[in-house]
Task: inverse folding
């Protein structure tokens, strides 16, 4: 926008260039009783963007369960907060930075991490862990290597420098992400319950303070960019990507936490998407007050920035605070110590408006209620489509040896170890990390200084999940499975699931089948969250993940947080010698596993259409309670959830680190090889039926006794030995060293 | 036992060192802000890891011009003990309190994992003399610029003087360091710079307790 035009009336064409629809523009003119100038229109457009207004998803997000005994703060704040006892709380949220990361992988990913960290420490919490969920295109795609290495360097570049450990997440590959990768970053923080900070502004006349980095011309209208589809012309959008500076982020973190020890701050919010616009509008409207800002007081990186540019810049590492009157000087000293800008830029006013002044002229005067409460809520047309294909296992299984199939699965990029990636992140800084990578199904970090005498302390367990194939084939069931699996991952690590944050990544919601994926998966998530008592406390929606009209696979990511009340109860994944492996949640006579929508089908049929496994949430909850009971009785030595790839690959994962072997005890029905039994065997070994966990124990008798009294199905797999060979009697034998080599080398071979 | 931990803008292992030393020595270390110029006497000054001044220009280069550096140099000239870990090591080479320089890992990646380092047969030093030479310590590394370089003449001097404190195992040199060097001592043995993080293997929830042993030995040596 040219500077000279900035105070002139906005035309419909200009409004549409900013991302507003004709309808929205007319509504704005009617509601504010005038034709907005360019700054005002820019502010409206940012607030009405999908990114800020959730206009397509709002109606459906409302159905999610958001409260519970342990919920201190649900959605609507910078992040969600749950009570973990001992006057402490966990603050967490996940957020996407998909479009920026495709345009500029390093900066896109780095600022994604920086942004989510600010969401957490703005609430008074010290961040204690980072997670990330990544989706890239096919490994054979020429762009994938470049995007992956840029994103990984960006995540590490920010997290390593600011000194917060990156302890887990997931990385998957599918051609649907070739031109639209996903970068979802999650941050977890720890706060004392009586030192939580919120964003609602208060107290007419109180000073509005700007702290952190200076405002530049980067990321202008980023929220609008993030709310549009891509075309081939993404290169030209580079200026809309923000540039991060983790060093300034670290200073801002320390300065804010230092100031938060005082009682000078009334409210605080970071300047994230839509920068100064959304932070000032949201803070004032939440507090039911108005805000007046003098744009001449904003610390600027470049000269001659227009009011439009200042308001819509997404420069990083900036915060907006309301201080108590008279606290300015004390607060300023802290920011001076950390060499950060500190400016009094305005005040809280009675009139519920946002008023901006520049060079003594009012350049914006808009009613706040209108911007926040009357932003559109759309009732988009939707169709929840479930796959109409129903395949029999005999349509799926291939004439290959068990060994060949297993090695293919273990060496598949979606199964193999992501060590090559996560070793580029500092996972041990802060000294509290307990489990990363495949040490256990959930990532685990200790609550700092929670140990006392003999008590070893408490920990937080975190897992992230999403199986897009299931969502595509059945959005409701897929949504349920995603939550169930995340919870299962916590339970098998010794944790108690408490709450979730979600990142709903989908294509264009204007298409009714995409809208159906959104609605369906939200319905599934809702049901599972209710049954498993894990409310949704924060989240993010990322739509229009399409390029040239082709959508990504539906990817509603769940980040679940749980607590481990005693770190001695942590369960790791690796089995030791002479332990007996059991499947919990399946009986000995079940031999026909579910192969539709499986990794097996994806690899060998080059297709994953069909039905999805059913998850019975009652049974799932019973299973979790049973595992918790076994763990409290010290019956479990190691445990692992059976998910992608099915039973055999999951057994292998438990044996890898100690290079063990096992003689697998097959269901009696399929002990003898023949054509029909082979069909069943493939299903048994590679089927992806839900609600199953493998555990290892030294106390099989006790386990059997418990399973009888609790009426839970179990199935004995066999006893681990030191042969390094997995025997499937009369069918095949598998070499653990070969598995280890495939598991560890696949990703480095693809990307080094 | 009086320990100072120097904090620069961008230091991020200061709290970890603090907790490690406090737990082992039962004494509370003192944080010293980089702008301080007049410091009391300490038995040990620790320069922790991190990204001081964002690692801009060159790792450790800007920190080596901070006001505190003069006090650290005075402490060194009095024969005081100094431990620099990771970015602290980089700062010590930038200030020339230790020889050599740390350049980018030869694999061109940040690396974070557990690794074995081998204690060398060194000149008398509180940092190594509690260990039998060739003792293996399992400790994590986490760095992007840990590739230690000195020229041949300097290297010969280091070897001759017994200034090499720790080496990576021959086939497990993670970053391309000359002679597999993971840590070096000053000529008087009173200053140690090391890339691995002993403060991350101190507590029972860590993967190893070898860092605890390192600090325990160090404290005993300094007190004896």
Result:
């Amino acid at each position: 926008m040219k500077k000279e035009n900035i105070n002139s009336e906005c035309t419909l064409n200009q409004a549409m260039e900013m991302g507003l629809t004709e309808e929205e523009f007319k509504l704005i003119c009617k509601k504010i009783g005038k034709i907005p100038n360019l700054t005002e229109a820019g502010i409206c457009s940012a607030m009405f963007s999908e990114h800020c207004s959730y206009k397509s998803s709002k109606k459906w997000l409302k159905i999610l369960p958001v409260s519970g005994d342990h919920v201190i703060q649900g959605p609507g704040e910078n992040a969600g907060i749950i009570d973990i006892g001992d006057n402490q709380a966990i603050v967490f949220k996940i957020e996407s930075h998909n479009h920026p990361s495709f345009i500029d992988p390093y900066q896109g990913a780095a600022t994604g991490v920086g942004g989510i960290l600010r969401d957490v420490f703005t609430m008074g919490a010290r961040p204690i862990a980072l997670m990330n969920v990544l989706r890239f295109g096919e490994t054979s795609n020429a762009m994938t290597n470049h995007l992956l290495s840029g994103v990984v360097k960006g995540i590490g570049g920010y997290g390593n420098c600011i000194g917060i450990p990156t302890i887990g997440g997931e990385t998957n590959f599918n051609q649907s992400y070739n031109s639209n990768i996903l970068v979802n970053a999650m941050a977890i923080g720890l706060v004392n319950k009586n030192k939580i900070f919120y964003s609602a502004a208060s107290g007419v006349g109180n000073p509005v303070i700007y702290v952190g980095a200076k405002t530049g011309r980067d990321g202008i209208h980023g929220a609008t960019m993030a709310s549009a589809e891509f075309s081939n012309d993404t290169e030209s959008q580079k200026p809309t990507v923000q540039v991060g500076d983790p060093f300034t982020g670290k200073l801002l973190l320390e300065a804010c936490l230092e100031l938060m020890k005082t009682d000078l701050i009334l409210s605080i919010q970071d300047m994230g998407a839509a920068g100064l616009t959304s932070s000032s509008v949201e803070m004032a409207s939440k507090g039911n007050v108005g805000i007046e800002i003098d744009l001449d007081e904003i610390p600027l990186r470049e000269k001659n920035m227009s009011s439009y540019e200042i308001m819509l810049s997404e420069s990083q590492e900036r915060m907006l605070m309301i201080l108590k009157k008279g606290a300015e000087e004390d607060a300023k000293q802290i920011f001076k110590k950390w060499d950060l800008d500190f400016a009094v830029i305005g005040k809280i006013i009675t009139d519920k408006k946002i008023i901006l002044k520049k060079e003594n002229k009012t350049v914006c005067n808009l009613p706040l209620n209108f911007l926040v409460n009357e932003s559109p809520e759309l009732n988009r047309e939707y169709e929840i489509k479930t796959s109409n294909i129903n395949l029999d296992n005999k349509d799926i299984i291939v004439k290959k040896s068990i060994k060949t199939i297993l090695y293919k699965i273990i060496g598949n990029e979606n199964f193999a170890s992501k060590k090559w990636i996560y070793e580029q992140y500092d996972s041990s800084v802060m000294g509290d990390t307990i489990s990363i990578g495949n040490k256990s199904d959930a990532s685990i970090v200790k609550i700092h200084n929670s140990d006392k005498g003999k008590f070893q302390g408490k920990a937080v367990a975190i897992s992230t999940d999403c199986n897009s194939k299931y969502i595509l084939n059945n959005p409701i069931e897929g949504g349920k499975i995603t939550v169930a699996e995340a919870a299962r991952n916590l339970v098998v690590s010794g944790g108690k699931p408490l709450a979730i944050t979600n990142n709903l990544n989908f294509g264009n919601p204007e298409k009714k089948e995409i809208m159906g994926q959104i609605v369906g998966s939200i319905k599934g998530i809702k049901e599972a969250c209710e049954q498993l008592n894990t409310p949704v406390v924060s989240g993010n929606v990322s739509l229009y993940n399409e390029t040239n009209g082709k959508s990504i696979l539906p990817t509603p990511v769940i980040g679940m947080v749980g607590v481990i009340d005693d770190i001695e109860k942590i369960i790791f994944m690796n089995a030791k010698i002479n332990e007996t492996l059991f499947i919990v949640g399946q009986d000995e006579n079940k031999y026909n596993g579910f192969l539709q929508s499986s990794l097996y089908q994806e690899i060998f049929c080059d297709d994953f259409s069909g039905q999805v496994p059913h998850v019975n949430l009652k049974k799932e909850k019973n299973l979790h309670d049973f595992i918790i009971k076994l763990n409290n009785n010290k019956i479990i030595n190691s445990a692992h959830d059976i998910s992608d790839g099915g039973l055999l690959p999951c057994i292998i994962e438990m044996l890898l680190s100690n290079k063990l072997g096992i003689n697998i005890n097959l269901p009696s029905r399929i002990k003898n090889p023949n054509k029909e039994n082979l069909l069943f065997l493939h299903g048994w070994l590679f089927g992806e039926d839900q609600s199953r966990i493998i555990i290892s124990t030294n106390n099989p008798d006790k386990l059997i006794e418990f399973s009888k009294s609790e009426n839970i199905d179990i199935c004995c797999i066999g006893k681990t030995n030191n042969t390094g060979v997995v025997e499937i009697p009369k069918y095949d034998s598998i070499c653990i060293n070969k598995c280890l080599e495939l598991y560890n080398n696949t990703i480095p071979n693809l990307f080094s | 036992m009086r320990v100072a931990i120097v904090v620069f803008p961008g230091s991020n292992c200061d709290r970890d060192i603090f907790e490690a030393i406090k737990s082992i020595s039962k004494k509370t270390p003192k944080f010293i802000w980089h702008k301080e110029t007049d410091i009391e006497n300490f038995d040990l000054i620790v320069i922790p890891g991190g990204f001081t001044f964002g690692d801009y220009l060159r790792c450790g280069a800007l920190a080596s011009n901070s006001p505190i550096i003069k006090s650290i140099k005075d402490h060194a000239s009095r024969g005081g003990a100094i431990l620099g870990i990771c970015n602290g090591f980089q700062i010590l080479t930038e200030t020339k309190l230790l020889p050599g320089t740390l350049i980018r890992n030869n694999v061109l990646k940040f690396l974070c994992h557990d690794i074995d380092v081998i204690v060398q047969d060194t000149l008398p030093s509180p940092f190594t003399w509690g260990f039998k030479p060739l003792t293996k310590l399992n400790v994590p590394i986490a760095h992007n610029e840990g590739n230690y370089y000195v020229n041949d003449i300097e290297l010969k001097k280091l070897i001759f003087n017994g200034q090499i404190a720790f080496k990576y195992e021959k086939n497990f040199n993670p970053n391309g360091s000359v002679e597999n060097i993971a840590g070096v001592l000053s000529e008087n043995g009173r200053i140690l710079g090391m890339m691995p993080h002993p403060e991350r293997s101190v507590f029972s929830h860590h993967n190893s307790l070898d860092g605890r042993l390192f600090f325990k030995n160090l404290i005993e040596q300094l007190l004896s």
Observations:
- DSSP finds five helices and eleven strands in chain B.
- Chain B touches chain A at residues 9-10, 12-13, 15-16, 19-20, 49-51, 53-56, 109-113, 140, 142, 144, 197, 199-200, 202-206 (CB under 8 Å).
